[in-house]
Design brief:
This protein has 95 residues and is an alpha+beta fold. The protein has one domain (8-85). 22% of the residues lie in helices and 31% in strands. It contains 4 helices and 4 strands; from the N terminus they run ααββααββ. The protein has helices at residues 14-20, 25-28, 61-66, 68-71, and strands at 31-35, 45-55, 72-82, 93-94. Strands 3-2-1-4 form a 4-stranded antiparallel beta sheet. It is elongated and about 50 Å long.
Length: 95
């Protein structure tokens, strides 16, 4: 799909729609950002970035609080591709 926002029918940005597709609480609490580093023109890059703090050791609240700096880690994923056409359905921003 080029220049499409599956969440538009629900009034969501593409970022909000993508975030809603998450399958766990850590991901749902993350942030999805879209940027056009060189402007929103065909053949220029578009970058999508996801960041979240993941809890890889889900324990009771007392133990989790004691180990918070150890059991929570920031996860970041970035993808950059080229725009095929001028975006009209997708905007810069985060959700």
């Amino acid at each position: 799909m080029v220049n499409q926002n599956p969440g538009a029918k629900e009034g969501k940005s593409l970022q909000a729609w993508a975030k809603a597709q998450a399958d766990n609480g850590n991901s749902k609490n993350g942030k999805v950002c879209i940027t056009f580093p060189n402007g929103a023109k065909p053949a220029e890059p578009v970058t999508v970035e996801f960041t979240s703090t993941m809890s890889w050791l889900p324990l009771g609240s007392t133990v989790a609080k004691a180990l918070q700096g150890v059991t929570n880690v920031q996860v970041k994923g970035t993808a950059t591709m080229r725009l095929e056409q001028t975006p009209t359905e997708v905007a810069v921003g985060c959700a």
